[in-house]
Hints:
Oligomer: heterodimer
Largest sheet of chain B: 5 strands, parallel
Strand content of chain A: 5-15%
Largest sheet of chain A: 5 strands, parallel
CATH superfamily of one domain in chain A: P-loop containing nucleotide triphosphate hydrolases
Distance between the termini of chain B: 47 Å
Shape of chain A: globular
Mean pLDDT of chain B: 74
Low-confidence stretches of chain A: 1-16, 18-61, 64-69, 85-190, 423-429
Structural class of chain B: alpha/beta
Number of strands of chain A: 8
Number of domains of chain B: 3
Low-confidence stretches of chain B: 1-7, 59-66, 131-149, 168-183, 638-642
Radius of gyration of chain A: 30 Å
Helix content of chain B: 55-70%
Strand order of the largest sheet of chain B: 2-3-4-1-5
Number of helices of chain A: 25
Mean pLDDT of chain A: 65
Distance between the termini of chain A: 79 Å
Amino acid sequence: GAKVRKDKTQLADSAKRFVKKLENISDEEAQEILEEKNYVAALGICARGSMGNGSGVSGGEVYSFQTPKRSSKMAELASELAQTPGQSVEPGHSECPEKTGKTPQNSTWKCNSKKKEAVSATPYRLRKRLPVPDLYLESESEYSASCSEEEDEEDQQEVNTVSSGQKTPAKTKASCMPPPRNTLARKNKKDKMSNLVEEYFEAHSSSKVHTSDRMLQKLRKRRLDQQTLHDLLKKAPLAYAAEIKDLNQQHESLFSKWMLQLHLGFNIVLYGLGSKRDLLEKFRTSVLQDSVHLVVNGYFPSITVRSILNSITEEVLDHIGTFRSPLDQLEFIIKNFREDSSLELYVLIHNLDSQMLRGERSQQILAQLSSLPSIYLIASIDHINAPLMWDQAKLSLYNWLWYETTTFKPYVEETSYENSLLVQQSGSLALSSLTHVLRSLTSNARGIFRLLAQYQLENKDNPSYPGLSFQDFYQQCREAFLVNSDLTLRAQLTEFRDHKLIRTKRGADGVEYLLIPIDDSTLTDFLEKEDEDI
Amino acid sequence: FRGRTDDSEDVKLRFATCQSLWNQMKLETEQVQEDLNKQLFDNLVSFLRRSHSESQEKATEWTCQMKTREIPTAALVLGVNVTDHDLTFRSLSEVLQNSVTPYIALLEAKDCPGIKNLMQKLIGQLMNCYVDVDSFEDEDYVQVSQNRIRCSMTSLINWYGSVTKKTDSETPSKKRTSSSRHWQSPPVVVVFKDMESFTTRVLQDFIVISSQHIHELPLVLIFGIATSPMIIHNLLPHSVSSLLCIELFQSLSCKEHLSTIIDKLLLTAHFPFKLGEKVLQVLINIFLYHDFSVQNFIKGFQLCIVEHFYSQPLSVLCCQLVDAKKRVNSLSHSQCENIRRLPSFRRYVESQVSEKQIALLTADGFLKEVIQKLLEDLHVYHANYMPVLRCLHIFTSSLPKYPLGKQIRELHCACLENRVWETEEYESSLQLARMLNKSDLVTMLQQCVEILMSSSGKEFDKTVEKLKEFLTQFQKLEGEAFQERDVSVSSQKELQKKTDLYHLQKSLLELKESRRSKKLTKFEVLRFELVDYIDSLVRNYLVPADHKTLHEIMYFNTASVLREHLNAAPRIALHTALNNPYCYLENQALKSDGGSISNKAPDICIVYKLHLECGRLINLSDWLEAFSTVVTGAEGPNADAASSDQVDDVIHARFIRAVSELELLGFIKPSKQKADHVARLTWGGC
Lengths: 534, 686
């Protein structure tokens, strides 16, 4: 009781001092801020216009600093969302939503209840962690409520009944706020600024993050590999297909405009939520049928600038030969395109901001490429920080025109290569990516991989199979005339390892064991497919 | 082949007009650029000549030679708009090639990570440019440049020696032509385009090495500097910078550059295409707040032109008056309908008498006649607008605190926005103008007269006369002013006589009274008249363009398009799409009020929304649980088979997809801190 109060006042004092300092600073900055506001206003006026696709959100509220969050909030929000089933519920039936509200609650809170007990046992520490009242009035109230389960239940029911009357969650929270307000009223006066500062430092003060300790394994759910995932998703109907189609048709009407602008020396970049792959594909098939074009799948995990340049020199310019460095190659391309004005090339890049292409050097090269008058670049970006890749010099080389194309389409292709969080953990690599990677290797390398795969499949019934030891493997490879020294084999294995095709483990006896971290069914599939190819 | 979507027949014509207009404007901007750089380049060229000749002179004296380890260097301060520099350097090298020396190497920091690369690049460029000069020997030299085995200073010197010797021993005719353009031993100019981004080691090494060889190789360096000349001393230690003999050159600031461009492109009656107020504002804002790049401004301007011609079918008429009249005659019926649909034309029709209204709306022939007349009006309006704007600018730009802005573009914007004489700023500036002193007024008047005389508008004869009249009157006042001064002096004398305190007070009061009630002096009267006259001019000629009929043909005013394409905000678009999918998918089920979203939103929106509630780490299994709660809740109570494995798998799959999409978008990343956890990468939101 008393001690807590003391803590609070101390915090308040320090916060006030902070505010004073801030005021000094803010005086100096006031002018600047004013100007900025003018600027924002000037730009903002024009924003709300014909464009219905609401870009009228001011920057400040989009991505601000980190603020502390409570762990249980997600579950709360989930149940709230589940409880407000939109327009389908009639206000009269108050029992029905209560039921639906309670069932998820029970399931989600089963493990949280333990945590809540812990909360009520150590109130001091937690109160210290919640020194900022203004935003946290509600949280405080909820914590005080959570001291006793019955009260919590009551509150929850209150929420339920209110929400059945079609109120927003914000309002329901307001309804359970009043009691603690009096004690905290004096603190309410504090600046919003100090709030922000406090929150920021609080969020960064403790390195410990409080999340529940549950694991996915406890859900007793089998891991999905890429194939089943794909199948399952096919079963799930795409929501709002009609609206998405409308949206895409809007974008497709821009194709001729894009062509015009590409020809006038601009390059086009598409942004917005949703996969833009289909859109670009459609653009390609409908407009670029008769012209030379190059499609770059940036999301592919092993794409490099070099491969892009190679495909330009080899396929477009019909040049055979190698270059010492990408810069030389670039120079060669530029020279060719400069000299031959009849040469035109459309380059479509899906995901210009992918892992492999976002590097400084690759962007520089691509920018220089795109600045050629007879190379027309149209690219898509997805990452929220993608525009940070470009500095002024690159931007002027790219000469972008930005187009917002929010499609809401799922990123099917793009995420299939991503070592997705939930899929990767099972260690399975998609068959498609496996074949993609291997296709780019030499036949000897493929042979080496086959040997390893076959050996692994032969031993698949052995649960304690450690993998193939390096020496044995080397012998086998030699017998099959695949390598001539263990150095070449090692070089090859390094390449496999870089592509995450194999894993090495040291056994108890210090021998290196090689293992393909792919489940057996995929491996069998792969071998069958390989056999077909040969 | 550049098809446009609309089906009007004069697409080609429109495109041709657009292209020709853009080419004209581009030429104009290039001209401007050249003019602006001329001064700078002249200075540079003379510097190069001087430095070179000095070193030649000194080469004759042994004593001096010992001292001259210094490399003549020009530091070129270009300003922060890095993107424009390329153009400047290109034209610079052209100028130098034509007037001073064929041996120029342009080096960029990104090509030169080490001294070796730098030398390679340098020698490659120099030898290639030699090949350009006399092409009949190229096999020999191409080989040399391809070998590139020993890219050392000595090879460079040998090459230089051989080249200069050769040009000397060329056939007389050849020698004459070459020596008329260049000297016998032209200097080798090395340009460092972006001095700041070179690594210090490379620069130092290069300078030290080349200073050793300065006698054999007349080297001149040019540094392109974006920040301040101090950077040279920051980058290079004293021992190295003492080897340089630096002279500073300042290029024109980009703001001045911009205002000349605006002056030449927008504030003339030459080009029929005009920018609306908001568009201009957006362009200028991008310039001032984002990049200071004139190049980007011009790019935006080009986009404006393209957009205008693309989206406005009537832009066929956006050309010179003579052509426009011809084109009006050949307008099709649908185009006439387009004209009738213009809001400004509707206003015009409504102001006419009823018979004329009917004629305008039904008869194409009559309509065309009227359009011709209106177009002519519009052209006359432009012709008058510009000089008057300049006059007004002369008056307002010298006022204290610049109520109407310092630059003419600000005034232009104000005039375009709405009736300028109704604004407060205009009011206050008139007030201030009424307090100007005479000499200022006279000079301003003279300037105005010059502007109006030079303009082609016929209507200005009268105004010029009137202004001249004012001018003479002001000059007449000169004599009278002396008399007035006498009067005031005498009254002061009276003051001094009276020493009595009481009398003094009284007389002071009297004086004050008389001052207050005193009639305005002649000068003041005249000043008032003049200001009123200017005011009337403004009211007459500076009507905002939106009030003119058919302004849509010439003015491009959809600023939102421009903003979207040039100054896009991808993060905000993502944010709205995730938080408020209704904006894009206009389905009633998605409609929600406030910050919340309904549980029927697309999966990724729900997942995003849930992740906003988490701290730095997110527990995947909690997340999945929450997600499935929401989704099953959305499917309603009839989905009582929610526990069945099949449905769960589908939800699981959907969850996986949504999470990996968020990862692709950069909201989360895998974390190794704790099993089954991901880290959040953004904060705030909702």
